[in-house]
């Protein structure tokens, strides 16, 4: 049998896939078997070449096939692939990366606790926030407030904080210490357009639960998996102020936004706020190694520095030397090649293309973007605010049309009435390649318009 069939059969039997329909997987086998890639392109076992229009999971910021990252990994692996950071041990790559990250984060975010990914980072931020309040004598401050449509990962606590019902309900927990603020950003924006206090939904929860019970508020500077929601202009400053007034930590989940994706090094830089904790992952290594971290302020670190017993938290791969060496090289390349600025200039090209599509197709609406993080809605009648029938799978349908034309992008349609499509290519993308993406989406929209 062919290699394709062999791998497909083995996959169906032996792999349970994340965020995938298991029945579909077992019935039909894997959708694509990747074999390699270069820049924005990915190749598969059947000889197809795709454009990776979402950097896989918005993380492959340097694009595929980057040899410098591979070499940095190899060099560290042959020297000391893995040593632990438990028991006060450390290695040069971990220390250098912590120093580098904290030279880029705003304000006095100067200390990093390393993890292996975004979910672990958010769980860690929750625990460290609660630990801080314990040390300060606020025994009751434990609750975490998160936003509707926020996505924070899939460990039990991070998934409970995720404001997307399908995920939230799968966490297998009803942890009362994690409270969802409704409505989500877009509803706030629509409902309160002329209201100066967009943060009102969080304020209501603080009043209801009591500030003495709340440890932290967690927000993505720009929501990603919830459908690419850019907050109203004064929103994050208002949330920062609200947290300060109530003695509550602000956790910025920068897992998607961090390291240049939105045209600034970090998402919060657009609004010039300094959170108490910042969760990072994904773009920290462009996906070439599993790494995450929680960056905290000096004030918080100073409190921990007085604690004279074991900090009972840590992952086997906290500060993994090889992952940290890849992270260091990744940031070096981002800075050397001006990729944050490139995200801005190419983001403007992408937005220009999306505007052209918005003008051309009546059902294409509400385009939004920052840097190379972009999204748009499909609606039956945007003027009258009428969505497509959920059963029509509008976003999924358009994404299928793009897939048929060898462009990989993502639909978000986990709630009735929601048909959002996201585009987030590698930051290394060229103008010509942005045009290619727009061209394919244009053809796919035309095909889609004939089906609806
Ligand atoms: N936070 C945000 C904003 C994310 O987008 C994600 C993943 O998509 C996570 C957290 C979870 O990260 P991971 O999948 O690395 O655990």
From TrEMBL:
CDD domains: OAT_like (cd00610)
Domain of life: Bacteria
GO molecular function: pyridoxal phosphate binding; transaminase activity
Coiled-coil positions: none
Pfam families: Aminotran_3 (PF00202)
InterPro entries: Aminotrans_3, Aminotrans_3_PPA_site, PyrdxlP-dep_Trfase, PyrdxlP-dep_Trfase_major, PyrdxlP-dep_Trfase_small
Keywords of the record: Aminotransferase, Pyridoxal phosphate, Transferase
Family of the protein in this entry: Belongs to the class-III pyridoxal-phosphate-dependent aminotransferase family.
PANTHER family, A to Z: AMINOTRANSFERASE, AMINOTRANSFERASE CLASS-III
Name by which UniProt lists this protein: Aspartate aminotransferase family protein
């Amino acid at each position: 049998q062919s290699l394709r069939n062999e791998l497909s059969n083995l996959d169906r039997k032996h792999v349970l896939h994340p965020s995938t329909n298991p029945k579909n997987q077992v019935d039909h086998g894997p959708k694509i078997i990747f074999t390699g890639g270069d820049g924005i392109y990915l190749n598969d076992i059947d000889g197809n070449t795709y454009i990776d229009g979402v950097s896989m999971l918005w993380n492959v910021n340097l694009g595929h096939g980057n040899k410098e990252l591979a070499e940095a990994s190899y060099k560290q692996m042959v020297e000391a692939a893995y040593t632990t950071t438990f028991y006060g041990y450390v290695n040069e790559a971990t220390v250098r990366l912590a120093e580098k990250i904290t030279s880029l984060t705003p304000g006095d975010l100067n200390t990093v606790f390393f993890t292996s990914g975004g979910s672990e980072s958010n769980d860690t931020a929750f625990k460290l926030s609660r630990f801080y309040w314990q040390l300060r004598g606020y025994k009751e401050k434990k609750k975490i407030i998160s936003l509707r449509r926020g996505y924070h990962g899939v460990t039990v606590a991070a998934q409970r904080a995720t404001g997307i019902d399908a995920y939230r309900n799968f966490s297998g927990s009803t942890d009362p210490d994690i409270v969802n603020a409704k409505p989500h950003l877009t509803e706030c924006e629509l409902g309160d357009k002329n209201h100066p206090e967009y943060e009102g939904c969080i304020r209501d929860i603080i009043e209801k639960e009591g500030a003495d019970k709340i440890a932290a508020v967690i927000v993505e500077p720009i929501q990603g998996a919830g459908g690419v929601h850019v907050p109203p202009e004064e929103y994050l400053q208002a949330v920062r102020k609200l947290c300060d007034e109530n003695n509550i930590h602000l956790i910025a989940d920068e897992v998607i936004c961090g390291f240049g994706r939105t045209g600034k090094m970090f998402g919060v830089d657009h609004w010039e706020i300094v959170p108490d904790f910042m969760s990072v992952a994904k773009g920290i290594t462009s996906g070439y190694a599993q790494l995450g971290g929680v960056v905290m302020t000096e004030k918080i670190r100073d409190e921990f520095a007085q604690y004279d017993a074991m900090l009972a938290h840590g992952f086997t791969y906290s500060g993994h030397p090889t992952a940290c060496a890849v992270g260091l090289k990744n940031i070096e390349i981002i800075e050397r090649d001006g990729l944050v600025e490139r995200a801005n200039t190419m983001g403007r090209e992408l937005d220009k293309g999306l505007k052209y599509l918005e003008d051309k197709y009546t059902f294409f609406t509400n385009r939004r973007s920052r840097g190379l993080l972009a999204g748009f809605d499909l609606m039956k009648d945007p003027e009258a605010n009428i969505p497509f029938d959920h059963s029509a799978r509008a976003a999924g349908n358009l994404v299928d049309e793009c897939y048929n034309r060898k462009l990989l992008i993502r639909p978000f349609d986990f709630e009735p009435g929601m048909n959002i499509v996201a585009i987030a290519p590698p930051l290394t993308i060229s103008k010509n390649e942005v045009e290619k993406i727009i061209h394919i989406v244009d053809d796919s929209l035309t095909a889609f318009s004939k089906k609806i």
